[in-house]
Amino acid sequence: MELQETPASAMKSKHFPLTPFRIIRGVICLSVLLSTAFVFLIYFVPVAAVLLRLFSTLYSRKVVALLFGLWLGLWPFLFEKVNETKVVFSGDRVPPRERVLLIANHRTEVDWMYVWNLAYRKGCLGHIKYLLKKSLMKLPVFGWGFYVLEFIPLERDWIVDEPVIKETLSTFTNPKDPLWLTVFPEGTDYSDEKCKASQKFASQNGLPVLKNVLLPKTKGFYACLEILRSSLDAVYDVTIAYKNQCPTFLDNAFGVDPSEVHIHVRRIPLDKIPEFEKEVSKWLMETFDFKDRLLFDFIANGHFPNEGTEEELSTAKCLTNLVLVMAITGIFIFFTFYSSVWGKIYVLFSCIYIASAAYFNYRPYPIFGSVNGKLNKILRMKSH
């Protein structure tokens, strides 16, 4: 997951023109998203992600998912209701609230945001995690949010990243801990130049020569699968395509592109995926070969097969979520300006803690839970 500029040569006319109205509306939407995120972070993180985590990682994550799932719900509302982008789902109709490892192609810098539209419908929005570039963790406010939601920062150097992935995911093996771990095995977003380099490597090494996706990097996917396999319900193979053109972050903010987002989902049971690394690598290559053919079909037909597997978002649900988030934000903004000096000190120290913890990727250890666990173990031993 990364942010890049779109080359001028790749630019086409936008689906909607960038009018003054869309600029003003986009600025208002971004202001709302940033201000609400900031308020949620500074007021809820010290309690939900720090204090509660000292007692229980599981319940800390549940509270964080509940609170920040409300905020993440603003994005599908922006995409589908405000921008009027049509999101079309196809393939398998997946059940709600499963614990999954999700793999997706990486067409543009904002693919990961459209996965939220599926997670929102499945009641798993607050439980979604990504593997992402470490530099993104240093972004003000957004980087803080990535930290709180426990996204996994990567250097794109396997020697450095392997222990980080394994150490982090070792804390996510509890089947009672909801999880949507999203991996983009291509490692970067698609471009013609990267595709040519990928095709050259493939032809030199006897691998499938793909045209609509890049060759997947298999080590990261295998590491995730190996650690989590026994606690997962399924793997979701997600293929994303856009009509008109691939959007940028600002296209989303101002609602000028895309006209449609098509998301094809395959639910793959764990017993259909090999266990050993060599066979898993081959399976992943075959999966991306399937994605390549699926995207050829999309280009030819304008849609994926078996459309209509998910319902449209409820406008009432979206508006209720928006009102709740805005009400919570308004209350805490009022408290910030009219509280005593201690309230302002709380805000200051909360900002300092979140910024430093996100920068160094530090998380408190559940001390009290660990102590209670050891005491219970000692008592059980004595009883025997």
UniProtKB/TrEMBL annotation:
Residues covered by the Phospholipid/glycerol acyltransferase domain? 100-222
UniProt-listed Pfam families: Acyltransf_C (PF16076), Acyltransferase (PF01553)
- Keywords in UniProt for this one? Acyltransferase, Membrane, Transferase, Transmembrane, Transmembrane helix
Q: Which reaction does it catalyse?
A: a 1-acyl-sn-glycero-3-phosphate + an acyl-CoA = a 1,2-diacyl-sn-glycero-3-phosphate + CoA
What EC identifiers does the entry list? 2.3.1.51
* Annotated TM spans: 23-51, 63-79, 319-338, 345-362
This protein's pathway: Phospholipid metabolism; CDP-diacylglycerol biosynthesis; CDP-diacylglycerol from sn-glycerol 3-phosphate: step 2/3; Lipid metabolism
Q: Name residues in a coiled coil.
A: none
Domain of life of the native organism? Eukaryota
Q: Which CDD domains match?
A: LPLAT_LCLAT1-like (cd07990)
- What's an example of a GO molecular-function annotation for this chain? acyltransferase activity
- Stated family: Belongs to the 1-acyl-sn-glycerol-3-phosphate acyltransferase family.
Q: Supply the PANTHER family for this chain.
A: 1-ACYLGLYCEROL-3-PHOSPHATE ACYLTRANSFERASE-RELATED, LYSOCARDIOLIPIN ACYLTRANSFERASE 1
**The protein, known as:** 1-acylglycerol-3-phosphate O-acyltransferase
Q: Whose protein is this, by species? A: Solanum pennellii
